[in-house]
Amino acid sequence: MASITVRELSRSFGATAALDRISFDVAEGTFFGCFGPNGAGKSTLLRVLTGQLPPTAGEVLVSGIDVQGNGIAVRERVGIVPEAESPPSYLTAYEYLAFVGRVRKVDDVEGRIERWIDFFDLGASQDVLCKDLSKGTRQKVMLSSAFMHDPPLLFLDEPFVNLDPIYQHKLREYLLHLREEGRTIFLCSHILEAAQKLCQEMIILNRGRIVASGSVPQLTAEEDLETLFLRLVEEDVHP
Amino acid sequence: MFILRAMLREEYRMHSSRTSSRMMFALPAFAFTIALVTSLALGNIMGAMSLEELLFNVNAGVFLYGVSVGALGFIGRTLVERRQGQLNSIIAMPSLLPMSYRSTFLCFFASDAIFYFALLIVPALLGILASLPFTHFSIVSVLSASLSLALSFLYGMSLSFAVSVAGTRSRGAFAIIAAAIIALLLGHGALHFYGIEWLLPTMGYQFSAPPLGADAPLAALFLAATIMATLLLYAVAIIMVPESFQGREARHGRLYPRYFARFASFGSFQPYLAKEMVDLRRSGAVGRMVLSFVIPLTMLSFTSWYVNNGLEVPVGFNIVFYAAMVGFFSVVLYTSLTEVDAHDFYGTLPVAVPRVIRTKLIMFLMLTMGISTAFVLGIAALNGEAGMLWLALPVLYVVSVYMVVATAYLTGLRPNSSLFDPAVLSKFIVISILPSLGLTLMSFSVGRTELAAVAIAGVLVLLLAAAMLLYRRIDAKWSGRGFN
């Protein structure tokens, strides 16, 4: 069964087409990668898939729900790590996780917070205001808030950004564990090395269009992901 | 200069983000037209109000507007501290580029002043000038009044800027300065130790210059005093701007769970209200609200007192009129509430924009009702009008609820930038001016005829019905919108 179905999706900002009639499916339990250069439309796609931005045209189903007009229902079922947003300035890390737990109405809020504070070693910064945290610590808080309700589907936009190599490794291992558990993960990134180790299926976006799609082993059978990526983007710019 | 130019561009783009450029440029035309029409109707207004009262009210109003938009110390700090969010501003650049915060704040103030002058103040003054061929005013009088109004605005901005920068350095200093300003207003309004011209020197100029007076040396003295005071406040503010806005990694007590428990009776709003309360406690927004609400309200209170008692020909402003004005004015607090923190992170949670708007509305009611009631009770006692409170208090509550719901419906979580859209501004003026005019006219007759109270009750019922309708329609208008 498809966890995500995208048909002829377009999203424009004025005259600029950020996404141009793209279609793909993500099967349940798949670790799916969305790659592309800066400005390719990855973050826009993620925002449309999570109901934060309405599509201009086309259809998007997430967990069987039409995202158009049902953003809350979608976001109840998924975890989201955005590329740019930070946790609220005037709550501490602990308080933000408590807030997320209350909004999501999860059981054992305290226990879940403790789990993620331990996982990301946030003990020393859990009572510091989010605005005063380092970028890396803020990213850990955003990751914790996306994981704390154990969602079956995760949308991660550049999740490794600002993390040191130790936590990049730890996060990669955790994501692999989720993959083994059968969770669906939609990852947007331009860190190709990490992506190649994690993803089973992928699309490459450039200028709002899909320039390649398929299984990672199939697409990288003849060339590594970086070479493939550079070639496809170059061919798209200078056909 | 290039920083100033870039900031002006930024200011324009920020305010036009909710509208088109064409609509944005319609705003000066809008201000021009409103001023022209008001000037043409001035003959009728003058029947109910003396020229002295009129000029005092307009100067006080423009001064308060300057105060409300000039809290750039607080605004600047918020922009700097929010630098990791999706939006960034030139004012945050000194942390990355070889620029000083002082010079950046200097440009920030200048760009804001130029922006408001170009968009609103100058077109409005031109509107007044354009009415000259059709009115009996002399050009000298109009130019003199225009100068006074422009300076009142700048003086208000500078005062607010200085106080807000002090507030960013020390909450204690801010509290002392705010208390001193309120004490100064009390010294004039309640104790009559000195005239209004010693607080608002543009009034000293206005009383001595045409059309009210012809004492050129005294007018020049007050003019110089206003300019000096404005520049001094501006300079003090710039000197006080800190050269670092780095947050300290200080530990904080866990307020959120405490407030979460306290809001248990608010049902599904419980987690959101608890967050709002923590934000208010920690962000320093309370200081900003004091600047934009309590101090202007104190000023408004003494304006009301002055018009009733300080002038030779009282015009019958009573506590019912004052309550309505407080209700209309309280809407500025809603704007402050929407600017405490960015809302972008809500996009990652199962939360819709109407939920956050309604949370702000509940918080608004909790914050303002006590303060507004205290002011109305205080002025009723001061003016010996306690007997009219039975009508004044319902007027206060209904007008406050109506105004804030209508503002929230029209502007959502971005009232500041949305009101720069002339289409939104026109609707806002219609929904605020019509009831305001009705209540004002009817309030003058309270005590003279019983019909006035019945008519006011009728207007209140209509306003409540309108507020309920708009409250329900917030869902339809804002459900599909994102947080950024």
Fold topology:
The complex is a heterodimer of chains A (239) and B (484).
Chain A: E1 2-13, E2 16-27, E3 31-35, H1 42-49, E4 57-62, E5 65-66, H2 71-77, E6 78-81, H3 93-103, H4 109-119, H5 135-147, E7 153-157, H6 165-181, E8 184-189, H7 192-198, E9 201-206, E10 209-215, H8 216-219, H9 225-237
Parallel strand pairs in A: 3-8, 3-9, 6-7, 7-8
Antiparallel strand pairs in A: 1-2, 1-4, 4-5, 9-10
Helix pairs in contact in A: 3-4, 3-5
Chain B: H1 2-15, H2 21-40, H3 42-48, H4 51-69, H5 72-81, H6 101-130, H7 139-169, H8 171-189, H9 201-208, H10 216-240, H11 255-262, H12 270-283, H13 285-310, H14 319-329, H15 331-338, H16 353-383, H17 389-411, H18 415-418, H19 422-444, H20 450-478
Helix pairs in contact in B: 1-6, 2-6, 4-7, 4-9, 4-13, 5-7, 6-7, 6-10, 7-8, 7-9, 7-10, 8-13, 9-10, 11-12, 12-16, 13-15, 13-16, 14-16, 14-17, 14-19, 15-16, 16-17, 16-20, 17-19, 17-20, 19-20
Describe the structure.
The complex is a heterodimer of chains A (239) and B (484). Chain A has nine helices and ten strands. Chain A has helices at 42-49, 71-77, 93-103, 109-119, 135-147, 165-181, 192-198, 216-219, 225-237, and strands at 2-13, 16-27, 31-35, 57-62, 65-66, 78-81, 153-157, 184-189, 201-206, 209-215. The longest helix of chain A is centred in the C-terminal third of the chain and has 17 residues, at 165-181. A six-stranded mixed beta sheet of chain A has the order 6-7-8-3-9-10, sandwiched between helices. By secondary structure, chain A is of the alpha/beta class. In chain A, 49% of the residues are buried. Chain B contains 20 helices and no strands. Chain B has helices at residues 2-15, 21-40, 42-48, 51-69, 72-81, 101-130, 139-169, 171-189, 201-208, 216-240, 255-262, 270-283, 285-310, 319-329, 331-338, 353-383, 389-411, 415-418, 422-444, 450-478. Chain B has 484 residues and is mostly helical. Chain B starts with a helix and ends in a 6-residue tail after the last helix. The model of chain B has no long low-confidence stretch (mean pLDDT 84). Classes of the chains: A alpha/beta (239), B mainly alpha (484). Chain A binds chain B through residues 47, 50, 52-54, 69, 71-73, 75-76, 80-82, 84-92, 94-95, 98-100, 102-104, 125, 127-129, 131-133, 135, 138, 142, 145-146, and chain B through 81-82, 84-86, 247-257, 260, 270-272, 274-275, 278-279, 281-283, 340-342, 344-345, 347-352, 479-480, 482-484.
